[in-house]
Amino acid sequence: MIDPTEISLISSNKCFDGLQNIYEHSSNELNCKMKFAAFIPKSESSETLPVLIWLSGLTCTEQNFISKSGFQKYAQEHQIIVISPDTSPRGCKIEGDSDRWDFGEGAGFYVDATESKWAKNYRMYSYINSELHQVIKKNFTKGKNFKVSIFGHSMGGHGALISFLKNPNKYCSVSAFAPISNPINCEWGKNAFSGYLGSNQDAWNGYDSCCLIKQYTGPNAEILVDQGLEDNFLKQNQLNPQNLIVASQGNDRIKINLKNREGYDHSYYFISTFIQEHFEFHAKHLKN
User: Fold this and answer.
1) Which string of b and e fits 43-82 if b means at least 16 CB within 10 Å?
2) Measured at the alpha carbon of residue 11, what is the angle toward residues 90 and 15, in degrees to the nearest 5?
């Protein structure tokens, strides 16, 4: 078995005094080579820096967030390492993995597939919440334990929410931009879950944020959600952020802070406008 913590540097660019790097490694969870981005702030501190993991949305790679959001300025200011993985396995040559933009390559949906066709490679949940943490610990925190939070956009917002809710003692905080909040009740989610997980509704519920909020028994948590009100996918009922509030009403351990933004859509123009607030939110928890 290949050591997934052995990484190779693909590129490095100075940005706001830090380094925006791209790495490649071999993943045992996904059985393929994967790329991920890492922003490493310039730091004079000998202390272990906290980590923030960003999960991107449908069709994205490790490149979208780092080139469009402008987050590096705030990562440098708050002294936070930011890790941005790809959104699915690549190059596995599974029949049908490139037929649709919302399923297969670029659309792993952050679940561990159980359907035999996809189960060998499409294990993004375990990749994000286990293997990637091993990579971070060995290569970016000098083998030391580290504080970590998670956030994301659209499909990645869904991935961030479920990762936090299923691992309440692993992550310090979570936030999301326009997340697919209730995938068992939208077209994107139904398509992805039926493909990766089959017809087992219990398996679907295990990756649905609204279901997980109802079952959550971890520490009290505030979840920050930003949603643009001119988002076409909101209007198509793919996102349903209001369902998070409904789900949380029976669980006083979870507070949903939903910020509806007039005039904003689903794009990185929206994300770049409010990314500073998300860094301030996570820094508060990571530095506590």
Assistant:
1) eeeeebbbbbbbbbbbebbbebbbeebbbbebbbebbbbb
2) 120
Which of the residues 27, 154, 173, 209 is marked catalytic?
A: 154
DSSP strand pairing (32-40 vs 81-85)? antiparallel
Report pLDDT digits (tens) over 48-87. Answer: 999 999 999 999 999 999 999 999 999 999 999 999 999 9
Give pLDDT tens digits for 179-203: 999 999 999 999 999 999 999 999 9
pLDDT band of 1, cuts 50, 70, 90 = confident
Spacing of C-alpha 222 from chain mean position: 17
Q: Which of 153, 266, 278, 282 is catalytic?
A: 266
| The model's pTM | 0.98
Compute the distance between CA of residue 73 and CA of residue 54 in angstroms, rounded to an integer: 15
Fill in the DSSP letter of residue 127.
Answer: I
The residue annotated as part of the active site, out of 231, 248, 278, 282, is 231
Residue 154: active-site member: yes
Residue type, position 197, single letter: L
Q: What is the pLDDT of residue 288?
A: 81
Please give the order of strands across the beta sheet that includes 7-15: 7-15, 18-27, 32-40, 81-85, 51-55, 148-153, 174-177, 221-228, 254-261
